[in-house]
Amino acid sequence: MFNFVQVNYDNLEEPDVVTENGKRFYKFPSVAQKYPSVTTVTGVRSRQSIAEWRRKVGAEYANKVTTRASSRGSAFHAIIEEHIRGSLDEQKYKKDPLALNMFQMARKTLARVDNIHALETPLYSHVFALAGRVDCIAEFDSELAVIDFKTSTKEKKEEYIENYFVQEVAYAAMFYERTGIKVKKIVTLIATEEGSVQVFQKYNLNDYLQLLKSYKEEFYALQSKG
Fold first, then answer.
1. Of 192, 188, 200, which Cα lies nearest the Cα of 155?
2. What is the topology classification, in CATH, of domain 16-224?
3. Which of 16, 46, 72, 184 is the least crowded, having the fewest Cβ atoms under 10 Å away?
4. Is 90 exceeded by the pLDDT of residue 112?
5. CA 194/CA 192 separation, integer angstroms
């Protein structure tokens, strides 16, 4: 059983979610500007390589791979959320054997998580003008962390997942702005189809906050070009 911590949020607003040219934005009642989702902003540097990959392999194959990865990831997240909430019925996910198996591989690592502060919780920052939904904020090895649950076909090299770390730091900033609570680190948990579970832990949050600013600049530069 996981322990849940009562967290008090400051002046939470419920935004409307809008999609423009395939990009997700959040519109708040008290703010004229629409806030882009943090995943939209942190995906800015990978869009070109993804487009090149799609041209190389063809649209039909690319769509098949993308749909499979999206389905796998959605099921994996749902299983983990229900597991943490104590409501998981594994029979319900027999139709998603890959995601269920990846969860089983990750179960031992998930035992290092406790004292849940946020789980699939919407967050936003007026300072950074960003919004999104965080996977989990909890203690990992007894240290408060933003925890991101990912899936992958095979293991990831750290130099290729900088955007994950930037995304997680953005959630740390949002959480601090809304609650006054600082996290100590960010944690990326990646379950692979090969059966491995990777765990990346980062403590240098300020470095990634600086990177977040550069990601935003690139995003808005591309937006201005249409």
1. 192
2. Lambda Exonuclease; Chain A (3.90.320)
3. 16
4. yes
5. 5
